[in-house]
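Dear colleague,

Thank you for sharing your sequence with our group. We've completed the structure prediction you requested, and as agreed, I am returning the results in plain text so they can be pasted directly into your records. Please verify that the sequence below matches your submission; if there's any discrepancy, let me know and we will rerun it promptly.
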Amino acid sequence: VTNNHVIEGAERLEVTLNDNRTYDATVIGTDPTTDLALIKIEADSLHVIPMGSSDNLLVGEWVLAVGNPFGFTSTVTAGIVSAKARSISDSRQGRMTIESYIQTDAAVNPGNSGGALVNLKGELIGINTAIYSQTGNYAGYSFAIPTSIVVKVMTDLKKYGTVQRAVLGITFRELTPEIIKEKGFKNINDGIVVEEVSEGGAAMTAGVKPNDVIVAINGTAIHNKAQFMEQLSRLSPGDKASLTIVRDGSTRNFDVTLLNNQGSTRIVKAPTVEALGAKFAKVADDKLRALRLRSGVQVSEVTGDGRFKHAGIREGFIISDINNGRVSSPEDVEKIYDAIMNSDDTYDKVMFISGVYPTGKKMYYAVDLAD
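Please find the predicted structure tokens below.
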């Protein structure tokens, strides 16, 4: 288990063990939404770390962070749990994220990412993933993804190749004193206030309405966005959940059957670039110069009844940009495709492609990737 940002964009992965054995690694699956990745090596006599419960972790409890900061192999630092269910940003590099971090004051620096956060029993209770600093180095605050999220994500990546993420079908805000005053709420201090309910979504089907305040999921109290996202991230499409909601001053329970972001409970398959229905090849430098292109990837073949054929793209087309990002190799096309398909935003599953045919004719295409 490691962080997605550790392996993202890598052409080759190598894992070095404590006894200095090295192995090439393959990627089983990644989840940019939680910044987690699962990789595999072919090796014998590996020690498996026992999995602990981040739910049982207490603020003030001692923990150890393990990693390789600044290249110092297998460095261990100690600290206490400073807070739980901490969110440090609304997004990471423009992506939708799920953040419910364990905050510690164990010294974590560049090179610690993907390392273990353990309790004093030596049990894994988090994956070190971020620091809060104005200099880029440790300044007293470090953050780890709790095992409550890690276990679900890793299980799904191993079994399905992609995370089976449950969607409630609402937009929401954390309850604040300003919102309480604005809405006229009484006898309630925190929770998640529902802003909108998606048509035909799980919440609407269960009877959830705008201005409802969610205060618990399956009996676990919800005080903020991070706690809400953590509880939801444990569940899969098809799971049933009990929502405790305050409406018009009274508390009610709603049973909801969760869906995926496609509005169903079926298993979501890992995206494969073959769905585009095309093969790609590098473009010779002299051809790029002749067409006045800085970079590009040529569609060497349009196959079957795929997305490219439906969009009208023909064989020989040279792609220069996808979604305003320059492409220079077939691998670039695959990485952009994977990033789009791994996104939880159903409305942004599209490739906006610009390029030129060998005749010099410029063309622009929109390739719809949504089901």
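Summary note from our side: The mean pLDDT is 90.

Kind regards,
the structure core
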